[in-house]
TrEMBL record:
Keywords: Isomerase, Magnesium, Metal-binding, Phosphoprotein. This is Phosphomannomutase/phosphoglucomutase. The keyword 4Fe-4S does not apply. Coiled coil: none annotated. The keyword Phosphoprotein applies. Residues 11-127, 162-262, 273-376 form the Alpha-D-phosphohexomutase alpha/beta/alpha domain. Gene3D superfamilies: Alpha-D-Glucose-1,6-Bisphosphate, subunit A, domain 3, Alpha-D-phosphohexomutase, C-terminal domain. Residues 405-458 form the Alpha-D-phosphohexomutase C-terminal domain. InterPro entries: A-D-PHexomutase_a/b/a-I, A-D-PHexomutase_a/b/a-I/II/III, A-D-PHexomutase_a/b/a-II, A-D-PHexomutase_a/b/a-III, A-D-PHexomutase_C, A-D-PHexomutase_C_sf, Alpha-D-phosphohexomutase_SF. Its cofactor is Mg(2+). NCBIfam families: PRK09542.1.
Amino acid sequence: MSRPAAAVHRVIKAYDVRGLVGSEIDESLVAEVGAAFARLMADEGARQVVIGHDMRDSSPPLSAAFAEGVVAQGLDVVRIGLASTDQLYFASGSLDCPGAMFTASHNPAAYNGIKLCRAGAKPVGADTGLGLIRDQLIDGIDPTAGRGAPRGTISDRDVLADYAEFLHSLVDITGLRPLRVAVDAGNGMAGHTAPAVFGSVGSITLLPLFFELDGNFPNHEANPLDPANLVDLQAFVRDSGADIGLAFDGDADRCFVVDERGEPVSPSAVTGLVAARELAREPGATVIHNLITSHAVPELVAERGGTPLRSRVGHSFIKALMADTGAIFGGEHSAHYYFRDFWGADSGMLAALHVLAALGEQQRPLSELTADYQRYAASGEINYTLTDGVDASVLVDAVVGSFGERAVSVDHLDGVTVDLGDGTWFNMRSSNTEPLLRLNVEAPGADAVDAVVSQVADQIGALTAAEKSRS
């Protein structure tokens, strides 16, 4: 049975499938997605699909429906059960088969979704398969109708211990000084993976916070990008005397770091630190950074003999560049970290191990260690909600124009990036998934950052009011 195009477009996004459970995503829809995905993968030679899911109440039944859609097309299913997204990527890479992860990441409990990948954790996005799946759903696909092949089988496999062992093989964690490590799982999947990864390291004392798996997120949203969701960890670090705090999002593929004072360490500083470690292992290698990361990142990479490569924001762009260039590492401002040795996929847990190794190999506290990688002040990502009738391009043009001759250069790789000279720059870009205009500002000092943010806000406020008055 065909589905309305508008309804399908609403849930099949640029990078994944995601929506409200019941009204937008249900078992019948994901069974059709499973069948369409299986047909696409079978045409490319796949014989099995690995499936994992997070702790949301809706995840087990949705993943089961997806599995039925897959086996009806003649492909086998390997279920790994509860998993983080990077654990699913590990399974896809180690088993050399396509994968599906049921999660809505940091979204509230009412949401769920599917992250799809090809064998070797290669991404499936709008231009690399999701568009074809979308079209099949709109045209109509019977998830129970096979294509002449015998029905596939379903088996279960526990890969958690293998996943932890593989991560340990990529980072030398022997001989570290004793570390007290506070981890806020946010009731998400880090409560499942952190004990396996950190608990077996003799020098680490794991201090757990909100490890109970609960897809209703009773303590705070599992979105550490919002500073409000770091408050509990910051207090926990200070109260417990931890050497470091780690916060993970709902599906535990992103990792945020807090130092021993309870102060956040920027993802750009983490990118610089991990890049330095990887370049020490492979001098001259390429390191990818998205255009929102601090300018300190490409500076540090070049100083250490590496080749910095700038990318658009988004995992599909970085993963494509990782594959095309053989880059050893990539980092984003949103705390996604990509590793060539992890099939080019992102793993917050692997990035965390690098930070722990760097901290434990020397005696300085984390605040002093990471100061080496923080050269500029930054605004963080500021979001402006766009109301109906407001043209984002008009706002951006007005903001850029307000800086006049002060703008040294303007480029449009992703949104618009304006260099104001003396180390000050800002980027504005529209969200791919929400009616938001995103602003990031960096400058040598906080006063210069505040001045740019204020000027941008004044322009947006004035023009938004004008738009509202005409609506």
